[in-house]
Amino acid sequence: MGDRSRLCSVWLGSETGILKGVSLSRKQAFNFCNTSHLSRDQEVRALCWGDAAESELLVGCVDATVKTFSVEKGAFTESRRCGDPAEGCFSGLAALGGGALVTCAESGVLRVWREEGGDEPVTQLDAGKNVCRMRQSPTNPNKVATGGKENGLKIWDLQRPEQPAFSAKNLRDDWLDLRRPYWVRDMAFIPDSDKVVTCTGYHQVHVFDPSSPQKRPVLEAEYGEYPLTALSLTPDGTAVAVGNTQGHIALLDLRKGVVRGCLKGLAGGVRGLQCHASQPLVASCGLDRFLRIHSLEDRKLQHKVYLKSRLNCLLLASQDLEEGGATSGEAESEVKEEEDEGDDVWDAMERVEERQKRKTTEDKDTRKKRKKAQD
Question: In 10 A of CB 160, how many CB atoms?
Fold first, then answer.
């Protein structure tokens, strides 16, 4: 199993509790789990790297357990309980230095756990109800952001968890002086700045700047008419990719708030979306059971892999996604990349012309009688 896992550059979590690894160079996917004991309680809701070397994966499951997967060994090495399933599914999972974990449940309970020891968390705070997402800052691991339905963006410093370091205000009332609801679905820290970009269930994209005195968005944009579910920043940080419940993905310019272009090919709601750290690529997954890799330059589909299960989340390795080659003696391929042969099939089919309907004797008699009646 270790030979397979070392080839994988894309990792995905499914509703059936299977951790899936994809090797784009071999165009294969592998399942890493005990398929004889699968259940809905093991549904994967969150993925993150356990260390900077990307040798371990942290897998957050619905039953409030966090499993550690070794990429070198190709197997799960540890499992620990982090909270109570009654508090809701994981809305975020992150790793701190020294092997500590950060977990956040939908109920808003955010905890910090030590590497070894104990069922009691080191730190616990309340991020508010109905939390949809928690994200960690890539430059400052002790800084996390949370948000949810009727629960605005909050930025927390885990070293001073008594109160949020930043708490966003609600949007201004509309032109009818009616309150505008807010529903934060995902967020990301913009590199080389203090700004945070969010997407909402009301098809909005907002940029907040904690360094400014304004606690409302400094940039507002909209895309489509359906709830946005996931976002990811491009490597240069000037644009953001957003996906919605209808399978639409668009690139929005964060400097002007306009749509740069759209990515095509999806057939179900987007649940996972991530831009590669160095390559101009974006990966997406969701309800249609496909992993798709699009180019950010020409927005064309580069890879399409069918993975048999509905997918909740994905995680990209920082290395080149197509690194790695076939190893001798291996013939396993649980899932192969599906080729788009639909157009070829339709082109090869024989064309059938519609024949003209014959005139029956009854129709002729009816027309004669109608003509005589008119005369």
Answer: 10
CB atoms within 10 A of CB 205: 23
Token pair 């977990």 is at which residue? 103
Cα 143 from Cα 154, distance rounded (Å):
10
CA distance 229 to 351: 42
Q: What gap in Å lies between CA 216 and CA 198, rounded to an integer?
A: 12
Reduce the DSSP state of residue 29 to 3 states and report it.
Answer: strand
* Number of neighbouring beta carbons within 10 Å of residue 141: 15
Give the 3-state secondary structure of residue 42: helix
Cα–Cα–Cα angle for 134, 136, 137, nearest 5°? 140
| Predicted pLDDT of residue 349 | 57
Query: Distances in Å between the alpha carbon of 189 and those of 117, 186, 282?
Result: 31, 11, 17
Low-confidence ranges of the chain (pLDDT < 50): 325-346
| The one-letter amino acid at 249 | I
CA 226 to chain centre: 16
CA distance 90 to 100: 16
* Closest by CA position to 208, among listed 220, 191, 223: 220
Dihedral sign for Cα atoms in the order 82, 98, 153, 164? positive
